[in-house]
Amino acid sequence: MEITGTNTAPEPGAAPDLDLDLVTVPARQGLEAVDIIRRAAGRSGQVGPVLHDGSGDTLGFLVPPGTADAWDLPGSACTQSDGRGMRFGDAVSPTAGATGWLLPPEAVGPVTDPEVLRAALGEAARLIEAADNCR
């Protein structure tokens, strides 16, 4: 499967259901990746909507449908929505201890390009390893 950066989610409210995949990663690596993508936004695209779990252990990046078919990055998982049709309005702003948006769709727009995410997650892992080895 060839993955390109052309798949984007419609504007919030434009389509009632979205068939998207979700890449989940440990929160520390995910936060680093968000920063990396945002710094490089002028060169390679922007970060899309990002969910966080209530415990703060993981982040989930919305990516184009079909990404899970070819996702194989160690330390992460990619799940298909299988046509269950996530609505952007389904995940509301988080309350204490709840799952919610770190970066809501209305604030960031399109989903994250899987190739950009893969590169950012790899760089984040290397940065974390280097920082941990300096202790």
Describe this structure in words.
The chain is 30% helix and 17% strand. The N and C termini lie far apart (41 Å). A hairpin with a 5-residue loop joins strand 2 and strand 3 (58-63). It has helices at residues 27-39, 41-44, 105-108, 114-133, and strands spanning 21-26, 50-52, 58-63, 77-80, 100-103. The protein is globular, with a radius of gyration of 14 Å.
Q: Short summary of the structure?
A:
With 135 residues, the chain is α+β, with helices and mostly antiparallel strands. Helix content is 30%, strand content 17%. The chain has helices at 27-39, 41-44, 105-108, 114-133, and strands spanning 21-26, 50-52, 58-63, 77-80, 100-103.
Q: Low-confidence parts, pLDDT < 50 over ≥5 residues?
A: 1-17, 91-96
Counting helices, strands and paired strands, the structural category is alpha+beta
Q: Provide mean pLDDT, rounded.
A: 79
Mind telling me the C-alpha Rg? 14 Å
Strand order of the largest sheet: 4-1-3-2-5
Q: What global shape is seen?
A: globular
- How many β strands by DSSP? 5
Number of helices: 4
Helix content bin: 25-40%
Order of helices and strands: EHHEEEEHH
Biggest sheet character: 5 strands, antiparallel
